Amino acid sequence: MSFFIASAHAQEAGTSQPGGDMFQIFFLVGLFVLFYFIAIRPQRKRQKEHTELVSALSKGDEVATSSGILGKVTALDDNYMVLTVANNVDMKFQRVHVHAVLPKGTLKEIG
């Protein structure tokens, strides 16, 4: 008999709680469903909204890019756009880098 180490009792091999396996399966399925509604579904929704925003771009739109540059769209093709950011300053960006379409007249109010 030792005063410092408590004696350990091993669980009998082969015995399990009734319904324990089904509980684990339902727990894993429930965890996946929870993860889907917390992480996957909102991300897909944001991705779909961004795709619609990029495909709806047109000449004359005022936009903000993901890098924070504000400009007016002067030319578009399938993957690229040309922004006028100042007098005689045009910059070419990929369309997917548009962060937001600004209301008309925003650039005049800021600058």
From TrEMBL:
Keyword terms, alphabetized: Cell membrane, Membrane, Protein transport, Translocation, Transmembrane, Transmembrane helix, Transport
SMART domains, alphabetized: YajC
Subcellular location: Cell membrane
Top-level lineage group: Bacteria
Record-stated family: Belongs to the YajC family.
Topological relation to the membrane, as annotated: Single-pass membrane protein
InterPro entries in the record: Preprotein_translocase_YajC
Pfam families, per the entry: YajC
Primary location group: membrane
Coiled-coil zones: none
Record-annotated membrane-spanning stretches: 22-40
Originating species: Candidatus Marimicrobium litorale
Designated name of the protein: Sec translocon accessory complex subunit YajC
